[in-house]
What we know:
Helices cover 13% and strands 26% of the residues. It contains three helices and seven strands, in the order E-E-E-H-E-E-H-E-H-E. It has helices at 47-51, 71-76, 93-96, and strands at 7-11, 14-17, 36-37, 54-58, 66-70, 83-87, 112-116. The strands form three sheets. A three-stranded antiparallel β-sheet has the order 1-2-3, with no helix packed on it. It has a two-stranded antiparallel sheet with strand order 4-5. The protein is elongated and about 55 Å long.
Amino acid sequence: VRHKALRIHSEQSMNAETPAHLLTKEYLTPNSLFYIRHHHPVPFLTTDQVNNYQLKVDLTMDGKSEVSFSLEDLKKLPQTTITTTMQCSGNRRSGFNKYQRTSGTGWGQGAISTAKW
Length: 117
């Protein structure tokens, strides 16, 4: 669920940033406040599509065959947790526009978030 405070730049494709005054309230960004950056519309998948999903990994460059993993296969793999900060490369672009017009979404400083993955 998206936080009502997110600053929406576009609905389709969805692009929204965390308000500046909320960036440092917590070390980890709450999921509802995590910035959103999409280059294309996000598809709505049916339960059947999700259940039948297959990730195909082509290993032929290493002399091996293609390998497929179901979503359940992926969930069974060993897990590692890391804490990291992600930032859109356009973060703070709106500041540049004060000096010379740039192309792309006019992000403030909120296209950055920290989470445990």
